[in-house]
Write a structure and sequence with these properties.
single chain; alpha/beta; seven-stranded mixed sheet; three-stranded antiparallel sheet; 14 strands
Amino acid sequence: MCLALFALVFAAAAWDVTTYDARPWLADYRRLKHDMAQGYANLDWIATHRQLDLAALDRDTTAALNRAHSRVRAFLALRGFVKRFGDPHLRLEPAQRPATQPLASTTDRAIERADPAAGADCEAAGYEEDEHAFILPFAKLPDWRALPGKHFPAGRFGDIGVLRIAQFGEQRYLAACRQVFRAGIGQRALQLKVRAYLQLELARTLAALHGGGARRLLVDVTGNGGGSEWVSEVIALLAPGELQRAPPRLSAPTCDRGRVWYGETECPVLAPDGERERISGRGAWPGRIFILADHGTASASEDLVAWLQQNQAATILGERTLGAGCGYVDGGGRTALSVAPFDVVMPNCARFLADGTNEIEGIAPDVAIALHDEDGMQRLVTALAQPALRAAPVTPPPPPAPATAVPPRSPPAP
């Protein structure tokens, strides 16, 4: 059997080498470069601020595809090209191909386009139950008092109430979906109902923590890889007043940017800055707020960190965030490969901090704490005991104008 398996593998490898044709791979690569030049929101930032030599990268990738001599090596060359950008939102993922749809009336099609049916149940709608538990060992603290709760683990030690938000994607909360699912409900309607259910649980958990004696709040978003625009409602729930920041900037070049791969830029990939965005906070927590972040805090979670930090509404503890930044507005950009069952997905928006830094560089904490070793919890407890972190909450400066809108956010990312 081993000899037969070896022979089969050898035959497949030999077939791959003898039938390899670089031309379709190069054609896919040209389409990918075009799509990235016109739609990849972080391309100019990475070339300028990380000093990635796009012309050299293009030459190396083209040469690698020409000399690949097999589909495996050609795929590895394309994957290597994508990985050179170091952007968590720029990646290869299994191809999305449209499924065949049954015939429907004109009215039915119009309704489905507005809000397609979610499916027979939550599982069919793509909901699943992720792990929501604490990553850090709060339960080992000698005075830890846990609160009951499935979706948002919480508890208290001393005067610190701890609230865990492990995901910002509604589809990661299957049990919550089952509470609100109704036959015939649309995908978007289901998402909003799940969100409203979770928001209510968050508000109740905050009230229970405060009622139990907590006077300072630690919101734990370590390892939270992001999700949807739901994060804006969580920010509004926590914020003590009106917050504002620069809006996300979308990919919207005004010229053909093909020469960017030769080191020339005729126009920027991003649209100019728009009006500042504002969120009107509900102030559901009356005391001081801390956000606990780490290298796994990404995407929508970084949005929460940035809003609260830049408006002095919370103090950020822990580690620099991952640096995923803004994600996919209306699905983002996608290039389908014809030579492999994969698509290249790319972010079509970028968020910038107050100092002009792109969020893909990560967000530094106000108080740096190495969290993920045997002494991480003790460092956190020690930091929270410092007089500077026991002081009264910082009140954000009064806004110049009333809130007008909650900012749009990218849809859930896997």
